[in-house]
UniProtKB/TrEMBL annotation:
Keywords, alphabetical: Gluconate utilization, Oxidoreductase
Protein name as it appears in the record: Decarboxylating 6-phosphogluconate dehydrogenase
UniProt keyword Aminoacyl-tRNA synthetase present: no
Family: Belongs to the 6-phosphogluconate dehydrogenase family.
Domain 6-phosphogluconate dehydrogenase C-terminal: 162-293
Coiled coil, from the record: none
InterPro entries, per database record: 6-PGluconate_DH-like_C_sf, 6DGDH_YqeC, 6PGD_dom2, 6PGDH_C, 6PGDH_NADP-bd, 6PGdom_BS, NAD(P)-bd_dom_sf, Pgluconate_DH
Length: 299
């Protein structure tokens, strides 16, 4: 089977290489990557046997919509497009409808595994028709980890279900990372704990909190024990926000995921206006002391 891959960033490039290592023919296109196999999207499409299969791995939103629009004009009836990026699930029906006007099939697939996926494999959450899923199963099997398919691949439901599952996955990830981070800070604050990285490493086997995320935190601390080279400013990719919005829409309480998202917002404030207001209120009603702002330094 030959697969076209659009987008050769950190994920797309490693996915192409894993497919090749597993015996599949994968040809990639990226306008900004030296590793691009094709000189244009048109050339990529022309290089594929019919019926074609093209996997899109570009940033969510406008970049994905642009690629879907281009593919709708380049592909033929019976061809298949997979959006494997972190698109919002509500975009999937729009993408499917655009392609359906030209007789082109569509799947959405949430992909988890990060930069380690080439070596370890990717967890895959797909949405779409069963016939299209079966057609692409050789690709799914090549990308996922070895072992039982059900442990790392799911046909979650119709179009949009794959990205919905990945959205919730990432929301859970927010909460898990925040819990590990808070535990790390609490350990570091206690003088009797003489080796914080060693404590965390001791949790990596046998404990109920062991996980790959914990292993990655241990690895990060082995490289930089005080995390001195890293700023606390933390971005969010959008999926945490979407998870919270869906929790509101379904009236599902999600305090942990919500708090983890808001903690990321707080990380971007050097001097929180909200906390300034809290400090001012404490001073007003109780006469509690406040710390005066440092005067601005003129360089």
């Amino acid at each position: 089977m030959k697969l076209g891959l659009v987008g050769l960033g950190k994920m797309g490039l490693n996915m192409r290489e894993r497919l090749r290592e597993r015996g599949l023919e994968a040809v990639g296109y990226d306008p900004n990557a030296a590793e691009s196999d094709a000189g244009s999207l048109e050339a990529l499409v022309e290089s594929l046997p019919t019926p074609r299969a093209v996997w899109v791995m570009v940033p969510a939103g406008a970049p994905t919509r642009q690629v879907i629009g281009q593919l709708s004009r380049l592909l033929a009836p019976g061809d298949l497009v997979v959006d494997g990026g972190n698109s919002r699930f509500t975009d999937d029906k729009l993408n499917a409808d655009i392609l359906a006007e030209h007789g082109v099939r569509y799947l959405d697939c949430g992909v988890s595994g990060g930069v380690w996926g080439r070596e370890n494999g990717y967890a895959l959450m797909a949405g779409g028709d069963a016939a299209d899923i079966d057609r692409l199963m050789p690709v799914f099997d090549a990308l996922r980890p070895d072992g039982e398919r059900e442990d790392s691949f799911v046909h979650a439901g119709p179009v949009g279900a794959g990205h919905y599952a990945k959205m919730v996955h990432n929301g859970i990830e927010y909460g898990l990372m925040q819990a590990y981070a808070e535990g790390y800070e609490l350990l570091a604050a206690e003088d009797s704990i003489v080796d914080v990285p060693a404590v965390l490493r001791a949790w990596s086997k046998g404990t109920v909190v062991r996980s790959w995320l914990l292993d990655l935190l241990v690895q990060a601390l082995s490289e930089d024990p005080d995390l001195a080279a890293i700023s606390g400013y933390t971005e969010d990719s959008g999926e945490g926000r979407w998870t919270v919005e869906e929790a509101i829409a379904h009236a599902v309480p999600a305090p942990v995921i919500s708090a983890a998202l808001f903690a990321r917002f707080a990380s971007r404030q050097d001097d929180s206006p909200a906390m300034k207001a809290v400090s001012a209120l404490r001073n007003q009603f109780g006469g509690h002391a406040v710390r005066r702002a440092e005067p601005a330094v003129i360089a």
